[in-house]
Amino acid sequence: MSASSLKSETIELMGKLGVSQAALEGGDLAVHSPTNGEKIAEVKTSSAAEIKAQIEKAHEAFKVWRTVPGPRRGELVRLLGEELRASKEDLGRVVSLEAGKIPSEGLGEVQEMIDICDFAVGLSRQLYGLTIATERADHRMMETWHPLGVVGIISAFNFPVAVWSWNAALALVCGNSTVWKPSEKTPLTALACQAILDRALAKFGDAPEGLATMFVAERDGGEVMVDHEKVALVSATGSTRMGRQVGPRVAQRFGRTILELGGNNAGIVCPSADMDMAVRAIAFGAMGTAGQRCTTTRRLFVHESMYDDMVARLKKAYLGVTIGDPLKSDALVGPLIDKDAADNMNKALESAKASGGTVTGGERVDVNGDASYYYRPALVEMPEQTGPMFEETFAPILYVTKYSDFDDALEMQNAVGAGLSSCIFTLNVREAEKFLSAVGSDCGIANVNIGTSGAEIGGAFGGEKETGGGRESGSDAWKAYMRRATNTVNYGTALPLAQGVSFDI
Ligand code: UN1
Asked: In which residue ranges of the chain is CATH 3.40.309.10 found?
């Protein structure tokens, strides 16, 4: 395929998804495919004034949408799910083109969108509040959940479509409007999602204008949204560095946030582990998506009795894994997103060597020339947990360290800033249960005999500490998208005060 044909494929695919060629040409933001470095589009960024106007409009839309019954709002999300089903192949392909994901992961991401739509449709009839026992006679106490307002969504390049859908599907059934700022590295997938959503909106019929929109902008455009008083909730996915800025800025104006930030996820391999299963799970967790998931397995603590066997098996997997252009091959590892990502990977590997690490893999692989960054995933044996192991490097690097005492392994696993995902491989119920207990993993996700990545949407997704504490997706994460009112109704003839207080006038 010649260089120019990738651009034509982009135009053709985007056209099928409903985005015109005009939207892909002549803009001020160049989009490059990480698969070969080619410039595939130039899209227009929005000015601060345009973003503000969009937020104002979303606020007006919210005022209407909040009055629409939940199940009817669910109908919009049901239609979105249908449109996504119809566009799954094409949207998955654009994810591969723009974010460099291998085809099954590009498609998997769209499936994740469909799944959350299904979940949200059911949820639209289940926005339950409690009825609570009251201490006063002839009273009823209950809680009701109300729509919150405009939800601002900030998403990262690595899950360019799924993270938006987790937020948008829930926000919409909860009666909110949404404004989305995708990563400036992946605006095309976002434009495609908007076109898909617009088709669902058209079929729905009478949704207020400006209910769910997106804009392309660099960081300064995101700041406009973060600081805007009419954005009631900012749901931001990205680095801890970004979250450290967004969190306080939104808090300053008493807005709400859902922060889903970095992960430095670890696995523990115990003496009783099913080694075949553990190796497969770790290989996917550490090398999948070229190490660019927030849930990627980055650290591994292996019991000394299994260490040599585990390292030998992992080396085989690392040296054998196929690396290639996701658009042309069925390789398992695609490119890093850009040169910065490659530089960060190299820096971390240098630092690991300086800290006594032994590296297998990690070298650049020439797949499509100098303008794309394909690397063999790196397995780094570390004498102890030190140096770059304490940082999240968004690249396929797995540090492996030996342990002899289970409690030490637990302590090492928890000894980093981030607290997103974790896993243990064991057939020993004491180890498994301790890992899941209050003194076990301190992460938002703790798995047994399953890797750290690839969570399904039914559970709440997010983590503790520097991961930001937010929860998105399943379980009761919807509550963060609504405001709770406690209501007490007196249907009697007296006015008893709580706590037995008397105040007779
Ligand atoms: C992310 O990397 O930002 O659990 C999200 C997973 C995916 C979502 C990852 N379902 O790996």
From this structure: 265-456
Residue 237 beta carbon below 6 angstroms from any ligand 1 atom: yes
Residue 461 CA: nearest ligand 1 atom is 4
Round to whole Å and give the CA distance between 401 and 357: 10
As a whole number of Å, the end-to-end CA separation of the chain is 87
53: Cβ contacts below 8 Å, ≥ 6 apart: none
CA distance 110 to 273: 33
Catalytic residue among 193, 294, 423, 443: 294
Query: Over the stretch 67-108, which tens digit does the pLDDT of each residue have?
Result: 999 999 999 999 999 999 999 999 999 999 999 999 999 999
CATH of 6-261+468-486, one of 3.40.605.10, 3.40.50.170, 3.40.50.2000, 3.40.50.1370: 3.40.605.10
Q: Is 260 a catalytic residue?
A: yes
The pTM assigned to this predicted structure is 0.97
Query: Catalytic one among 38, 105, 109, 260?
Result: 260
* CA pair distance 58, 150, nearest whole angstrom: 6
What is the distance in A from the centroid of ligand 1 to the CA of 159? 7
Domain range 265-456, CATH architecture:
3-Layer(aba) Sandwich (3.40)
CA of 160 to the centre of ligand 1 (A): 11
Residue 116 near ligand 1, beta carbon < 6 Å: no
pLDDT band at 3 (very low <50, low <70, confident <90, very high): very low
Please check whether residue 441 is in contact with residue 413, taking contact to mean a CB–CB distance below 8 angstroms. yes
Residues of the chain with CATH 3.40.605.10: 6-261+468-486
Give the alpha-carbon dihedral of 193, 194, 197, 202, to 10 degrees.
-150
- Identify whether the C-beta of residue 442 lies closer than 8 Å to the C-beta of residue 469: no
Q: Is the CB of 295 under 6 A from ligand 1?
A: yes
296: Cβ below 6 Å to ligand 1? no
